[in-house]
Amino acid sequence: MLDVNNIYKTFDPGTVNEKTALNGLSLHLDDGDFVTVIGGNGAGKSTLLNAVAGVWPVDEGTISIGGVDVTHLAEHKRAKYIGRVFQDPMMGTAATMRIEENMALAARRGQSRTLRAGITRKEREEYHEMLKILDLGLEDRLATKVGLLSGGQRQALTLLMATLKRPQLLLLDEHTAALDPKTAAKVLDATERIVNKDHLTTLMITHNMKDAIVHGNRLIMMYEGNIALDISGEAKKKLTVEDLLSRFGQATGSDEADDKLLLG
Question: pTM here?
Answer without folding.
Answer: 0.90
